[in-house]
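dumping the sequnces here before i forget
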Amino acid sequence: MSTVSTSLIATEGLTRDFGGLRAVDHVDFSLEKGEVRAVIGPNGAGKTTFVSLLCGRIPPSEGRIRYEGRDITRLPAHRRVALGIAYTFQITSIFANLTLFDNVALPAQKHLSLHHPGGSIRDYGMAALERVGLADRAEEQAGNLSYGHQRLLEIAMGLAIHPRLLILDEPTQGLAEGEIARFEALVREVAQESTVLLIEHNMDVVMNLASRITVLNFGAILAEGTPEEIRANEAVQAAYLGG
Amino acid sequence: MHGGVIAALVVLGFVLPEYHHGAMARILVLAVFALGYNVLFGYTGLLSLGHAMFFAAGLYGTGLAMQQLGWSAAAALPFGIACGAALGLVVGVLALRTIGVGFMIVTLMFAQAGYLTSLYFTEYTRGDEGFTIPQAARAIGGLDLSNADTRYLVAVALFGVAMLLKLWLVRSPAGRVMVAIRENEERTRMLGFDPFRYKLMALVVSAAFAGAAGAAYGVLFGYVGATFASIQYSILPLLYVLLGGAGTVIGPLIGTVLMFYLVDFTSSLTSAYNLVVGVALVALILVARKGILGTIRDKWARWIP
Ligand SMILES: Nc1ncnc2c1ncn2[C@@H]1O[C@H](COP(=O)(O)OP(=O)(O)O)[C@@H](O)[C@H]1O
Ligand SMILES: [Mg+2]
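..and the predicted 3d for all of it:
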């Protein structure tokens, strides 16, 4: 088990049932520090459910999660954030009635209270908006943004936490071409300091960014490997063509 | 601006005719109740239907301590506030396991239990009839709180302190989290904040304000009765806040003043005054859904806190 020493987060037999439906089925998964890992798979494969278990948004039915060697299976979601796990929602979940600045001020406040007491919420919040190119609209109401810009704000909220593990759930959904290029540059920059777990449908983005890819199908890992290995994998092709 | 409100209230104390002078002192105490209600409802998004119990905890805490134990007003007043806060903590730990309508019902039932308790111990509380606190006991330091002018200024001072505390709270980091919970609790949780902790804090603060209003009511007006524990006093702060503007700092004062005079005026015209007040409120909510100050803020003055 040479991977144990460098693994940031790992699961053992991780399972989640919704009534009779097994959305995540005994997943053994390990993510190394510094990786950009893509998770792909057909709709309904269990990708969102899987990462929701990692960040604690929902509890597992079975199995265990280790983060930096520590068992966090029962740790509440807000305490996992304090350990550096940030999650951005697939279904955009911003504070629609508040300004863009207030949206990022909250995670900035969290980050500062944990790591830099006395730091300026304004500076940190604005920096997060700057990274996604929304700084000049800081005082606008978030609900008035276009869908694509709301996606970027959602990402900025994740960045403002300065996470060690950033989980992005279909971040490019609804982004225009130019915005996708900008997003790719952003992820490369974030990957300098953080480990990134990226659920993504756009295969160009996946191939451009991911160092490794995990393929989920029917809640289980179907394949895992480098982008080249996954591209050549027949089972993966069958799942996508069949699905 | 908030200093201006206080200054205006002090000046009003000298110019108001006697009747309104007395009414205004009462209004200011009830406005403290409304300010506290707004911390929970307007800022944190939790609708309680049981705030009468916190007001009554302050009122009885102070009243019974003076009546039965012979405490001075100076000692009984903070004790009443502590009673409100302590009850808020206990009720919060239990009621905050529920959300939405569940929370409304649980707080309503706790308040009903509180009301029945105040009737059950009639030997001490004198039930609906209530009891008075003797005039001689209603003094702090050299201040005679039964004197109309002193009473007015003490009410202004209490309101001023409560308003500044609330302003400080809503501008603090914790205030930011409270608003975030109101807007999107799940997102707030996933940004690393424990919603339960902040909701409990908001409820305890809210209950402490209600307790302070109840305690002050006891020493300033010298009457302690079970009416204040009844459902009516749970609904009133909600109406004050809705009318003045939920989630604004001084909206509750505006709401309390209007509501008080609306009831006062209509009840002098007709015995069906509750109906008239109800219709007026419905009309207002239709025209200005965010209450008076909330609507002004949205339309003209975004800077109002
Ligand atoms: N909260 C839920 N309640 C019931 N079923 C759910 C819930 N969330 C997801 N599912 C089901 O679990 C399966 C996996 O969903 P999801 O994790 O969202 O897949 P993906 O993100 O890969 O599209 C789907 O069949 C979905 O309908
Ligand atoms: Mg999904």
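Chain A has a mean pLDDT of 92.
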